[in-house]
Amino acid sequence: MQTGEASDARAGLVVALDGPASSGKSSVGAAAAAELGYRFCDTGLLYRAVTWLALHRDISADDASGLVGLVSEIDLLDDGRGRLSHVAVDGVDRTDDVRGPAVDVAVSAYSAVSELRLALLTRQRHLASAGRIVMAGRDIGTIVLPDADLKLFLDASVEERARRRILERGIDPASDAGAEIVAELKRRDALDSTRAIAPLKAADDAVIIRTDGNAIEDTIRQVVQAIRTAEPARAADGAGAADGAAPTTPAEPEPRRPRRPERAARAPRRPIEPTPIATRSTVLIRFGSMILRSIARAIVRFRVEGNLAALPKSGPMIMAANHASSADPVLIGAFLNQVLGRPLNWLGKREIVEFPLTGWAFRIAGIHPVDREAADLEAFRTAMRILEAGQTLAVFPEGTRSKDGALQQVREGVGMLALRSGAPVLPVAVVDSDILWPRGQLLPHYGKRVTVRYGAPFVVADELAAQGLPVRGRQATEAATRLIMARIAALLPPRQRGVYAGDVTVGGAAEGA
Hints:
Helix content: 40-55%
CATH superfamily of the largest domain: P-loop containing nucleotide triphosphate hydrolases
Structural class: alpha/beta
Number of helices: 19
Largest sheet: 8 strands, mixed
CATH class of the largest domain: Alpha Beta
Distance between the termini: 40 Å
C-alpha cells in the first residue's frame, strides 16, 4: 500500500490487541479491521507456523538457532482485503496445519524461546511500521508495540473461552475432549502469564474489554468504537504538532512512522470461474495459432533458434521467458504450440478473460485468470495443478513487461515452482521484441527483426545438487530462481541481460547463446 503526504498524522492508528488464548482476538480483530478499512495481523500465526514447522522437522524447543532459521521460510499472506490470514511454507498453504491440536499443545513452549521471539519481533514491527493496522497477540502492547496509538486487551474467563473453543470444534462439552480443552487453556494461561520472556499481561495504558456473555457482534462493536474514539485524538495530536504548538515540558521528538492515506474498504471481488487445463491442441487452438503465426510473419522478420526437436512432447514442463513486449506471448505461444503438438497454459490477469467479446477465446487459448489483488498463493496453486496434470505451463518470471527490454529482478515464485513440481524448465529468450513493440506504443513497428531462442530443458533440483547446493528451503528457492534467470540471460544479447548479466555462467551457458 502506498504512503501519502496529505497530513502530518497517519490516517488511521496502530492498534495493539492482546488477550489470552481463545479470547476472540483473531475473529474480533479481523472483523473490526475490515469494518474500518484497516489491515489485520494475528501474530500468533507466526508462532504457530514456526511451531508446526519445528514439529514437522523434529526441531526441539531447546534448539534456538534451529528455530530462528525457520523464520525466513514462513510467509504471511494477504487475503486480498488486508487480512494477513494465510500461512505458507515453501509456497504451500499450511494455514489449517498450524491451527491443529498438536500445535495447540506445543506452541507455548516454543513461543517462550527468547531468540525466536527476538527474530519475530523485528518482523512484527516491520509489518506495523506503515500504520493503519490492528495487530493481535499476547504481548503486542507490552513488548512488540509499546508505543502503539491504542492498546486493547480482550479478556474472558477460562470457562467462557473453553465454551467458545468447544463450540467451534463441535465437541460435546461433557466429553473427555471437552474437559481436555478446559485443562489445556488453563495450562496455556499459566505458561503464558508466568514465563520470564514477554509474559501475558495487559499494558498499563490498555483499554480492557471483558467479553464474558458477549455475542461476538457486541465485542466487535466495542473494539470498533474504541478505535473510532481514538482516531480524532490522534489526528488532533498531529494537527497540534503541525500548527507549531509547543509542549508544556521539553521532550524528545517521537520517531514518525510513514504516513498512510485513507483507505476505503474494498468490496470483495466475485469469484471467477477457473479455466479448464488445456491438455490437447483443439481445432480452435490450432486455427488460432495458425492465424497468429501468419500475422507475425507478415509484420516481423522472425527467426527461431535452438534444438526444437529435443523439446519434450509429453509430461510437465515450465516454459520460462523474458518479457519485453506485448508481442512475446504470440511470438512464443503460436509457434511453440505447433512444435510441441500440445497447447501452453498461461497465467494471466483476470481482466483478460472478463472481456465480454474475447474472454471466451482467451480461455480456449489456455489462459488461467489470476486475481492480482489476491495472494500469490492462488497463482501458485493454479500453476501446480497444471503441472500435476502433466501439461506445459508458460510463465514470465518478471511478472510484467520490462521498461527497457532488459531483465528485471524477479521474485522467487518460479524457482519455488520448479523445485516443488520437479518439472523441467525450458528457458526461452525473446530478442529485440522491445524494439518491435516498445512499451507504451499502441501498435508494433513493421519489419523489425525478432529472434526467439530456445535453450535446453533442465531439472532445477538436479542442477543445484550437482553444484552442492541445497534443494529445500529458502536458500534453495533463491538459488533455483537465480539459476533459471541465468539460463534465460545466457540466451539474450548483453543489452537485455539486465540485473542477471553477471550470472550468465551460473550452471553453464544455455544452448543457443
